[in-house]
Amino acid sequence: MSVIDIHIGARRESVSFTGNLPLASVTAPYGLPMPCGGHHTCGKCRIKAFGLLSPLTPEEEKLLTPQEIEEGVRLACSAVAIGDCTVILPDTDHQEGEVLLDGAHTEVETEVWGIAVDIGTTTIAVYACLGGKIVRGAGQLNAQSVHGADVITRIGAKCHEELHKIVVQQLEELFRQALGQDAVAADVRKIVITGNTTMLHFLAGYDPSSIAVSPFTPQSLFGETMPASQFFPEYINAELYLPPCVSAYVGADMVCAMTASRMTEGNGTVLLADIGTNGEMGLYHNGDLYTCSTAAGPALEGACIHMGMAAAPGAIDRVTLGPDNTLLWHTIGEKPPKGLCGSGLISLMARLIEIKQIDETGALDDPEEAPDGSEEDCVPIGNSGVFLTQQDIRQVQLAKAAICAGILTMLEECGLSAEQVDTFYICGGFGSYIDPHAAAVTGLFPKELENKVKVLGNAAGSGAVMMLSERYREISRSLRDEAKLIELSTSPVFMEQYIEQMCFDME
Predict the structure, then answer these.
(1) Once rounded to an integer, what is the mean pLDDT over residues 254-279?
(2) The pLDDT value given to residue 95
(3) CA 261 – CA 105 distance, rounded (Å)
(4) Which CATH superfamily is 2-89 part of?
(5) What pTM, to 2 d.p., does this model score?
(6) 3-class SS at 43?
(7) Poorest-pLDDT segment among 86-95, 269-278, 374-383
(8) Fold topology of 113-264
(9) Helix, strand or coil, per DSSP, at residue 46
């Protein structure tokens, strides 16, 4: 019998085992980020480990600097305990990070205790409601991130039962936080849980593997009511409603956002975009509603970026220009800089474009060598100690091209130009924090939309709150039925635009 001593800040725990034990299985319960889902590519699961361990893998030798190796840093996804050892984890968990709870147009039509939930790929937001108002909100980073930063990676992990268990346990904790001392589980009569189609599959315990392969057929598109006790045994008096999805990649979260935005109630041309790892979009024009989805990947949420991180204290969230075009930075919580979150990433990219430190292809002008010994070309962010690599810029190009190409393809399918859009709603955690001007400069969306932006906050969460009322459930079902799906994966227009939008507009 061997023992692993685990240190997390001042805490100390131990795990006994026989044989060999992958360190990823040891670190998973502590919420250690693993955006690549354990495929040894992102390097985010750095820990310190000493003792009887497997030799360094080629992936570790590539991703870790000589100094890190000397200090005992290992990748949890690669290292294996073969005997007694010590593991030192970062003093953080899945709860760290800013979670967007505010939304727009929220109406609460319930006189009994109700709970509304938005399960995002990156964050989870929960609202406890009573007497026509939101009493309290609670949020955390999605603990499923230990199995990957995006839905495709999590599906590929082939552990939907484990992912079901993770989300149910996390929701039970968040329910208690949102209810506080005001109510107990038995007082709750209604629960609405929204999310993209994959997140609802994990919640329901369904195997989502068919979503990841053509013809992308989900087991369910939901829009159903069931006893909440089916998943949450304490909530014996509550009904659970899962709003409808349009398709495998246009989920209930988008239907809820469209409901909350009231985008179909006027006569104008309205575009709605939930910008995140999975960019979902809706377009309303001349009485017709169109939807589409494009895979932006996790770069915009800080994952797969060399010094990327969640929007937590210490993350650089804004970059401005000082004298002689020096890069000035601001961090969340005014804390010492630790990394770069999504809004900071877009802000930085805009500044680099404005001072022409990158060219239209994304190549850095006069790059420096990364100070961590990784041999990456980079640009330092002032005196913060945080830097952006050439490979990071390539990840941004892939993400922004997918979002912008999706928008342009939808508009072209409807015979419209960006100038003809009257209102451009942006929602979601990442989308609500970015500077619209920086996003337009970077090419995340067409520049013609910049002055038409209206930020909705967590519109999916707002829609879930509204669906505590049957009236809005009926509206959501009508939107689902009316929505015309534009399949970008088979669109030659999208592929053409995607390639074109990879470049930056330097004018």
Answers:
(1) 92
(2) 45
(3) 7
(4) Beta-grasp domain (3.10.20.30)
(5) 0.87
(6) coil
(7) 86-95
(8) Nucleotidyltransferase; domain 5 (3.30.420)
(9) strand
